[in-house]
Design goal:
Blueprint (H helix, E strand, L loop, with lengths): L2 H28 L3 E8 L2 E9 L5 E4 L9 E6 L4 E10 L4 E6 L20 E6 L7 E18 L2 E11 L11 E3 L5 E10 L2 E6 L2 H13 L5 E2 L2 E7 L2 H7 L3 E8 L4 H5 L6 E5 L2 E2 L3 H5 L11 E7 L2 E7 L2 E2 L6
Antiparallel strand pairs: 1-2, 1-4, 2-3, 3-6, 4-5, 5-6, 7-8, 7-10, 8-9, 9-12, 10-11, 11-12, 13-20, 14-15, 15-16, 16-17, 16-18, 18-19
């Protein structure tokens, strides 16, 4: 073998070794914080994963893992078992918070999914098919995906879902998706198909949801009472606002906050609360508990002119779509 042949092989071996060091370092950091869940509820028994994120026993998992259950057993990597209680679950984000009283599991560091890029290395840690403490690695294969979630008759989209090719299987749900620094940037939530996994991102919105679950056991959401479709803004409006799309109103629920505020069919919502509205998800993002009963300034485009109105969102209940 010539020196020219050995050099590419040496470079490949070095790259593979660097990759392995990253994955093993992340596994060593995150594995002690991930528990295997055994859940028993009205629908029978189930399994999943959870991630310790505080030093006083709070765990984060997927809402569908503990649906209908009030508790179960968490088994940590060192073999320690502890009963957990469900503090609160939010089906519309597929997140739930649990608490164990006698665990010394170190908390994982919650990161931020917003800076993730396609092709970035991620490591999934969970308990697929009863195989505790399993680690798989892959890359971010898609960003900005949406995942429908239902709570009674209310259906919402979980936004900015992370798509990864890291192998995920039943039991991974509720486990950690970590970046190369070992920070948890997502909670694995579903297997979409062969070679395709999804994770709910950890970002500013989900941190608000997690905080509400810890404090009150539930997530309150605001309701405006409109439905819309994204449309391009006229070029002069796009140049003035710096955004290319708005949300054309195709339905206003009679007597809703939007209807009372004077938002009409055909209006194009350009901004709300001082933030650009480019699609339905942009509006959903504003509809967390703090918006209930608050004055929400909304700017719409109506017959070529900007019109400002003030809406006061009310609390979303399960009978409202």
């Amino acid at each position: 073998m010539t020196s020219e042949q050995r050099e590419p092989e040496s470079a490949e071996a070095a790259a593979l070794d660097a990759y392995s060091r990253v994955v093993t370092a992340v596994a060593a950091r995150v594995l002690p914080s991930v528990a295997a869940l055994s859940v028993r509820g009205p629908r029978g028994s189930g399994a999943g994963s959870a991630v310790a994120f505080t030093d006083d026993g709070f765990l984060l998992t997927s809402a569908h893992v503990v649906r209908g259950a009030t508790g179960g057993v968490a088994t940590f990597g060192d073999g320690h078992q502890a009963r957990f209680d469900v503090v609160g679950a939010d089906p519309l984000s597929d997140l739930a918070v649990l608490r164990v009283r006698d665990s010394a599991a170190p908390p994982a560091e919650l990161g931020d999914a917003d800076p993730l890029r396609i092709g970035q290395l991620v490591v999934a840690v969970g308990n697929p098919m009863g195989l505790a403490g399993s680690v798989t690695a892959g890359v971010v294969s898609g960003l900005g995906r949406s995942l429908p979630a239902r709570d009674g008759r209310v259906v919402r989209l979980i936004e900015d879902v992370i798509q990864t090719d890291a192998a995920l299987n039943p039991g991974n749900s509720g486990g950690a998706l970590a970046d190369a620094a070992g920070r948890v940037v997502g909670i694995n939530t579903a297997v979409a198909g062969y070679g395709l996994g999804l994770a709910v991102p950890v970002n500013s919105t989900t941190r608000q949801i997690i905080g509400e679950l810890v404090r009150t056991g539930r997530v309150r959401r605001a309701w405006l009472g409109v439905a819309g479709v994204p449309v391009p803004l006229p070029p002069p409006v796009a140049a003035r606002t710096g955004q290319q799309r708005g949300l054309r109103v195709v339905e206003v629920v009679p007597g809703s906050p939007a209807g009372v505020a004077g938002i009409y069919l055909g209006d194009v919502i350009v901004s709300a609360g001082g933030r650009p509205v480019t699609d339905g998800q942009s509006l959903q993002r504003l509809m967390l508990g703090s918006a209930i009963g608050s004055r929400l300034p909304v700017t719409v485009l109506r017959r070529g002119a900007f019109v400002d109105v003030i809406a006061v969102p009310t609390e979303l209940t399960s009978h409202r779509g």
